[in-house]
User: What shape does this take?
Amino acid sequence: MELTRRTFLKISTGALLLSSLGLNLEPVKAYAAELRTKGAKETTTICPYCSCSCSIIVSVKDGKVINTEGDPDSPINEGALCPKGASVYQIVGTNNPYRVTEPMYRAPGATEWKKISWEEALNRIAKLVKKTRDKYFITKNSKGQVVNRVDAIGHIGSAALDNEECYLIQKLMRSWGLVYIEHQARICHSSTVPALAESFGRGAMTNHWIDFRNADVILNMGGNTAENHPMSMKWIMKAKEQRGAKLVVVDPRFTRTASKADLYVPIRIGTDIAFLGGLIKYIIDNNLYFKDYVINYTDAPFLVDPNFKTAEDLDGVFSGYDEKKRAYDKSTWKYQVDENGIPKKDPTLQDPNCVFQLLKKQYQRYTIDKVSEITGAPKDKLEEAYKLLASCGKPDKVCTVSYAMGWTQHTVGVQNIRAFAIVQLLLGNVGMAGGGVNAQRGEGNVQGSTDHGLLFHILTGYNPTPVASDVDLKTYIEKYTPKTKEPKSVNWWSNRPKYFISYLKELYGDKATKENDFCYSYLPKRDDTQNCSWLMIWDQMYKGKIKGFFAWGQNPACSGSNAGKVRKALAKLDWLVYVNLWDTETSSFWKGPGMDPKKIKTEVFMLPCASFVEKEGSITNSGRLAQWRYKAVNPTGKCMPDAEIMNELYWRVKKLYEKEKGAFPEPIIHLTWDYGEKDKDGKVKHIDVHKVAKAINGYFTEDVPEHPIDKKSYKKGQQVPSFVFLLNDGRTACGNWLYCGSYTDAGNMMARRGKEDPTGLGLYPNWAWCWPVNRRILYNRASCDPQGNPWDPKRAVIKWDAANKKWVGDVPDGPAPPLALEGGKLPFIMKPSGVGTIFGSGLSDGPFPTHYEPLECPFQENPLYKKTRINPATKLFTDTPEDVFVYCDTKYPYMATTYRVTEHWQTGVMTRHTDWLREMQPQVFVEIDPILAKEKGIKSGDKVIVSSARGKLWAIAIVTERFQPLKVMGMTIHQVGLPWHYGWKFPKDGSGGDSANLLTPTIGDANTMIPETKAFMVNIEKA
Amino acid sequence: MARKGLLITPDICIGCRACQVACKEWNQLPASKTKNNGTYENPPDLDENNFNRIRFIETKDSKGFRWLFVSHRCMHCGEPACVQICPAGALIKDKETGIVYYDKNKCIACHACVSACPFSIPRYDQGGKGKIAKCHLCIDRVKAGLTPACAKTCPTGAIKYGDRDALIKEAKAKGYKLYGETELGGLGVVFALTDSPKVYKLAENPKISESVAFWGSVLRTLVGRSGSTTTSFIKYLAQKSTEEVKK
Assistant: This one.
């Protein structure tokens, strides 16, 4: 019997009268005990872990959390929880004995922490911020351009913050002039965003978790969904059971997901594009692509500049490559256009310059034989996989992919994902129920934190951060607002000015006027060629260029690739502010292995923050669904909610600048910050997250008597109903246009709990709220033919109601009529071309993916290209002694990768401090195949040393057949893998081990610099 | 209430071990100290803090390589040997639901149940020196109309709770071979398999030793008849019975 939460509540608080044991020894009638949750107060929250965002009921008695279990009402988890979700009891409130409960301070050269009051800590930090900012503020750069920024202070974090806190922190840090702003998203799914945005128009998971049950074939590749997103398996197993769906797992290692697969294909680490290129060739050669979809909804028929050359023509590079710069001149990477500026097309797909034929040429050598040679995958398994996936090009057969770090964390990360995006466009699965390209984000709110602009290159809502040559608002708008000549293209990003200006208006309120460009000049600008991403932060910090740093809800000493470099870089800081629930390898870096505290001058502040049930706010899951979380108990000890810490820092820095003047104080002093009742001095007493959420949604700043969109009148202070109503003239303020509609005059849409599912596809339109405008499946107009009839009527996401001239079903991705009707529009409304993009010219390393070896690989040469071993457009790090790498080196003969286990999460800060989880996976291990183990004399349970060119660590050996040596290019390649969840700080006796990132290299993807933590070479010896 | 049970289907288990954690959460059990013995399996055995755990089994046969995740826990036998032998009546079979639960207050820590159990399930708390500890199928939740913690938390429904008859019917309709349908009076925890029990490391042909019934009646008669029978005497006899049963 599945009970709803309300019933649960009734039973636990009702008086249960049960008979007691009889005195004789006969089997008795009934059991005598009351539920220990009887009389408890219940609230709901959302799990902080993987981004499935399961709902949890928290029971509280006497101000203490006494129970946590699954919320049966959530359509995502239906009362179930994975081991991490089931364990949150042990990290909340006073249930965790390891939490830091008052601020701590480490003085320069000190060997220990000392306790400090909040007042002292916050005052000192504010002083340091001002001192460093004043000293290193850059008004104009070396070219004389106004930049108004400070490079000497950096900030990372956090995907663990609620949306409202993410919004506040980016607002605060940017008002101080920071450009080195990054967080978990960079090292996790930063490659997803341009890959999907280039292909379809938006950089997020196209469908959502429950939708897996609608698929016919599910590919799990570059990911391990059963272990890292366990609740996804609820829906994948349902697809298998209810519709006979097939699960295909392609992975170097036989994982817990592979144990449930209908087909498992082993491949060599870092050869995903070889596999996927082979699939593209298979689809084309066997005519299995969905013709109508391809011709009408993609750029396959578009003609490309005849001077464009594929990587086949030029031994691994595309036309326009500059070897010295390691970059491309992309001028040949463009469509041919007619006299109206519209791309020329060949709907027969025969023209040798059309995208389709160029695609065919690009993969002409990706035969099954060649793919098997490069990947080591058996030919019969390849063929079986290709057959299964390629069968989904029919209108009524849909496949999908669930992927994560195995695709993203490579020098070819973006292209890995692009390869499958191309597959899905060929098969016509984008916009379909059970289809799409499903990026599995991995953190409670990493989707939200990315949406709210916590990366150096984006503001909220994916508006770009300005660079130095974007001298004024006009220039910015001109440069970043795409135009199109295609009359059938909606080109939704043409609305960017409304979103950007409304954002500026939220930042600076009344001070932002048309006359002063809405305070545009207050935004810090990085130099045009200045890359401030994650890898650059540690590089700059190592070189002494970053003096002060905020590591907020992150543990880079364990999560950063080449962790040794990160740890050494931290030692160069003047000051570090660390916000978390526990003291970690980062906050205590100065007493870590190999560190001499007496020589380290960094002042460190450990600020203990509240756990997720000790505050209120929203988080957004991988399926773009924003759900509300309620407060269950007060913060433990002296812990403060992050929003309050931000409030304190905002106020104190502002006061210092008002009192003492300093470098360019205006962006700080004029920042709006009206998120709660103010005291007599004007300081917000407590942040009201509802006020923040409302500001993020957006409101009218003055009366609008006749709105241009609907001619209705709106009053000052009213919430903006959706981003369609945002204006570019300062009459609307909006923190994040994507979230416009999440908190309207009707209320908090994110807190809704409606269980209706009118389409039967599991969309649940009234459960919480998703962006954009509550549209559950993106690009859903592509799920219908040009007349508006669903390609697959049995899984109709939307369909055109001709009588009423509107779409019914999910929120249509653009309300315009179907393509073939009058006023009809193309389905990919965020792309200027209006179509799905196979020829991805917006990327820096090629319009088509092609196989390159990882930086560290077993070969001298790329099996495909003699001259181009690795991605020719990635930045090589060579400046510091830490940036070493090897390839085809006998000292490090084994290919290695890092991964995760269900029982732990990320750097293990939360899960190592959870006794129940640590019990199941207590120590770092390395999995090796039995043949390699025999060669090295290693047995399961032995301690071994795993080493790379950069570092080493011990691990417990698990000898298993789940890794098999592969035959690659005539060689036998052994592959090994380790989880990266461990750190020297806890358990205190060091028995858990340290971070596998001590092994990984300093190099990133060519487009986003996501580190290549998934492929490197190691040696293994018995300890 | 009809007889309740669990249906465990290893073929849809993803080895996540939410069941291990949810059980500990509901029963407020601490963690044991563990180390990695060259496997994901932990803790290495049931203990006072772990009423259920998952066995990780790597196996290779004509069907190919498989990684199986199989629950290890009390079977809630229809004819529970532990109840039969327990001299203190601490182990009880609930008439209504068939759940085999216990009253720690009555337990005299004689350990007779340990050897009587065909599956070697009962454990003792306080490092083995305390009272009986094992899965009680969350009888408190069941009596309140709720689902046992492990079944509720299971993401894929590999552990399913319900009326035993209905669960068996459903599993048969899906073509599974059942383990525990009739053994030992029918187990309360039935496994739905697609291969022989041996592959899943389930005890083949579990039986209760005949001497269990004998010793059980002896011990209980002694306790019941004379209030002056001391606990230590019962314990002595119980240990005797244990030796007998072990033979």
